[in-house]
Amino acid sequence: MTSRVIMLVVGILALVIAYMDLAVLRVISWFAASAVASSWTVVGFGSVWWKKMNARGAIWSMGFGFLTCMLLTIANRFGWISIPMWLHPFYFAIAVAFIGAWLGSKGGELSKAQIKFIEEMHTMPESERSLELVKRTKTLWLYTHYIGCCFINILSILVGVTI
Description:
By secondary structure, the protein is mostly helical. It has helices spanning 2-18, 23-49, 55-77, 89-105, 112-121, 131-159.
């Protein structure tokens, strides 16, 4: 429970700081979020859902994704290339990160312990099979989404920005 409260406080603090119109902070945050997401998205999903992902593939994926996002963002920022706003370098970096994961994972085998661990990740523990808990989890996303939208609208009204 404490970690959730800390994450909530940090998230609210980050939103407030982002709305203070600090242009440099916004650019750094935007770039950092894109770079981190492009390096970790494929690894995050691949390590859970792709049974052939290994450590070398994960490292290659993170490196390829990060470098692609960084180089394209810098090249676009300095005018060396022109990328439309709707086609952010993040999307290119995700594709390259996937290729890096695929190439890096070729030829590598997972140990029996790793395969067993991956299979256990997809097995629901007996302690979490409560019907009440499952119902609560299935509706929780709706409440958090609604609260988030309300918070963003209230914050935009207080700051004077229209969404």
